[in-house]
Design brief:
alpha/beta, Rossmann fold, three-stranded mixed β-sheet, 10 helices, 14 strands
Length: 334
């Protein structure tokens, strides 16, 4: 039996590559579409890699014609909220225009199933915790606004075409493949846990804590850390549901537990047995104080339950991957 193909945009990135592994394990053949501006080719291990841009309609048409996928999983995007405050045009071009170009190519190819990678940033500074899907969508940075614009585009298209989509709004992706095949390696790195690990292993001299005066127990931001393998499993479940005829939906992915920046630093020190130099800095613009998910809808609609709810497991898996890469200094850079 020939494995059904699915196109995974951004499949060479952190979450996309982990999802490709989950797809392959479930009998799909993931076809990665990536321009390799942030992803790395060595993370593409479970299917072909097609290098190109979503802004090139001829490239997308050719990929869809040759591979004939049954669905698309869309991860490709600019993702760093702080950067979006400095260069918003990049985020609207990559995230909004990229999504439009992709959906137009899907329509030309007759592909009607899409899983969309979104974010908790669409909620902004919510005064209600945990955050449910019924709360107002009031993003406070261009990154969140670009994702919300893309969500709106998909909803409008679904109302007027045969497109069916699932939007997965995840909170802070973290961890690494428990089997050691994959890890987190952005260039430059922007996510907290790998940054703290880099400080623990001496790859960088310290970790910066942006803001110590938030209205939280220790003054630092609190986030809901969701393991990347749990995210990958949710994408697989969402794909199966849509392929089975399910309706469009939007839902949160998280654990319902929040950890502060200082707690992550302290836990990383305990897991690694190393001292970590943490330096307090001023707040970054666009950072909400607290983001914690209510993922009841994902449990009900997808039957999804996160497997790794202890942040120590996230740090342990990420540390294990980083230790295996320590012999490759060109891979791990600050």
């Amino acid at each position: 039996m020939v494995a059904p193909k699915v196109v995974v945009t951004g499949g060479a990135g952190f979450i996309g590559s982990h999802t490709c592994k989950a797809l392959a394990g479930a009998g799909f053949l993931p076809v990665t579409v990536d321009n390799l501006s942030n992803g790395v080719a060595e993370a593409v291990k479970w299917g072909p890699l097609e290098v190109g841009s979503l802004e090139d309609p001829g490239f997308l048409d050719d990929v869809f014609r040759r591979h004939k996928p049954v669905a698309v999983l869309h991860f490709a995007a600019s993702i760093e909220a702080g950067e979006s405050m400095k260069v918003p045009a990049k985020f609207y071009r990559n995230n909004v225009a990229g999504t439009m170009a992709l959906t137009e190519a899907m329509a030309r190819a007759g592909i009607s199933v899409l899983i969309f990678s979104s974010t908790a940033a669409v909620y902004g500074n919510s005064e209600v915790m945990p955050i449910t899907e019924a709360l107002p969508l009031l993003p406070v940075n261009p990154y969140g606004r670009s994702k919300l614009m893309s969500e709106t585009i998909l909803a409008d298209l679904a109302a007027t075409t045969d497109l069916r989509f699932t939007t997965l709004r995840y909170f802070n992706a973290s961890g690494a493949d428990p089997e050691g095949d994959l890890g987190e390696n952005h260039q430059p790195e922007t996510h907290l846990i790998p940054l703290v690990l880099q400080a623990a292993y001496g790859i960088r001299p310290s970790i910066k804590i942006f803001g110590n005066d938030y209205d939280t127990p220790d003054g630092t931001c609190i986030r809901d850390y969701i393991h990347v393998s749990d995210l990958a499993h949710a994408h697989l479940l969402a794909l199966r549901r849509l392929l089975g005829g399910g309706d469009s939906a939007q839902m949160n992915l998280g654990t319902g537990k929040g950890f502060s920046v200082r707690e992550i630093v302290k836990t990383t020190a305990a897991v690694t047995g190393r001292q970590i130099n943490a330096i307090d800095e001023a707040r970054r613009p666009g950072d909400p104080a607290v983001l914690v998910a209510d993922a009841a809808m994902a449990r009900q609609v997808l039957g999804w339950t996160p497997r790794f709810t202890d942040v120590q497991d996230h740090i342990r898996h990420a540390a294990g991957w980083m230790e295996r890469k320590m012999a490759q200094p060109e891979v791990l850079t600050a």
